[in-house]
Amino acid sequence: MRFEKGKSSTFTVSLFDFLIILAVKPTDTTTTTLSSTTITTTEAVLSTTEAPSSCLDSNLITFENASTYSKIPNDYYGLKWTNAYVLDTQMYPQWSESGFYSAVKSGTWVAFNMNGERMTIHIDPTNKFSIKSFVVSSAWKDNLTLSMISQRASTYYKEASFKIEKNHSTTIELNWFDIDTITFYASIDNSGNGEVFVIDDLCLDLNTNLTSTPTPTSTSSPAIYPCSLNEVLYQNHCYYLDGIGGQCSDGYSLGSETILSRIADLFIGLNYKTTISDNCCVVTSEKYSNYGIAKLHQCNKQGPFRIVPVLNGGGCRNFTNKHSKQLTFCVSN
User: Fold this and answer.
1) DSSP state of 194
2) Which of 312, 242, 307 is nearest to 268 (CA)?
């Protein structure tokens, strides 16, 4: 397939690249006829915010030639990447007014999340990394909320959300130190529909010697205890997902949708506690079930989870029926 810029230059795109276009380009957008007068230069849409000077070149991931086949391979910069893809913006001049161009800070390559699904960066638990900052734009729509949730030593660490736009980039400084996992997700008004975001100039350190400021603790606070297999530790409680029809095991009770919305991403890579579910609407402490797994082919099957419950996922809205193995969210008492 070929894209022509005016009449003078031709950009050749492989079949694989065409499949990438179908996956990341919304189907409800209008087609724009390309001409030399409609192409906006990269400089015209870049944010003027500079990357933090503390990020040395050796720690700056610019995604230049990160992958021959567009998907970032595991062990790129010593990390494991889930749903992380790259492309060379020069190959797609027809997207010059999208976030793929406004996010460009170094070179011409950028990273993005395929199909609007969650992107995760992970390192083996014996190691750690630190996220200092990155440049980000929304690919196609304005006023997106980009949410991030992280783990340290395989337990909940921090979360944050920021508004991002299509036509100008935002430099986000996190300064999250010594973590082993970070998950990114973008949506409009925290809806269950994921959106595509674009990243460049990821400032990251592996096995850093930097340490975060210790969090003051009270001697009267309960001790943090380890959770069992396939459980998530959050605020001194253990949580799990299981196909048990609302019947949590002894010592556990139904968790709330509020907490589920905060920690759902931490279940990526985990499995059902004991039983595979037969219904994907999550039983919680609320009267109605409003959270579910959006893609049915990811539910009611042996894990690990690659898709997690989201608001109204799988059509779960004010759901009241109970199945014997309905997906259930439990918390330790």
Assistant:
1) B
2) 307
pTM: 0.57
What SS3 state is found at 150? strand
Bridge partners of 328, per DSSP, are: 242, 283
For domain 7-29+41-206, the question of CATH label 3.40.50.300 is answered with no
Distance CA 203, CA 201 (A): 6
CA proximity to 174, closest of 188, 189, 160, 186: 160
Rounded to a whole number of angstroms, the distance between the first and last alpha carbons of the chain is: 58
pLDDT digit of tens for each residue in the chain (333 aa)?
333 333 333 333 333 443 444 445 554 433 222 222 222 222 222 233 344 446 765 589 999 877 655 789 888 888 999 999 998 898 888 889 999 999 999 999 999 998 888 999 999 878 899 999 999 999 999 999 999 999 988 788 999 999 999 999 999 999 999 999 999 999 987 666 789 999 999 999 887 444 444 433 333 333 334 678 888 878 788 999 999 999 999 999 999 999 998 888 878 778 899 999 999 999 999 999 999 987 666 788 887 887 888 888 888 999 988 889 999 999 999
In this structure, is the dihedral angle defined by the CA atoms of residues 297, 331, 128 and 144, taken in order, positive or negative? Answer: positive
Domain positions in the chain are 7-29+41-206, 232-332
Q: Is 15 helix (H, G, I), strand (E, B) or coil?
A: helix
Strands annotated E in 16-92:
60-61, 80-82, 85-88
Q: Which fold has domain 232-332?
A: Pertussis Toxin; Chain B, domain 1 (3.10.40)
Burial, 289: exposed, middle or buried (Cβ in 10 Å; 0-12, 13-18, 19+)? buried
Length of the chain: 333
Paired residues of 12 in beta bridges: 2
Contact 246, 328 (CB under 8 A): yes
Q: Kindly report the CA angle at 331 between 327 and 333, in degrees rounded to 5?
A: 145
**Are 4 and 11 spatial neighbours (Cβ–Cβ below 8 Å)?**
yes
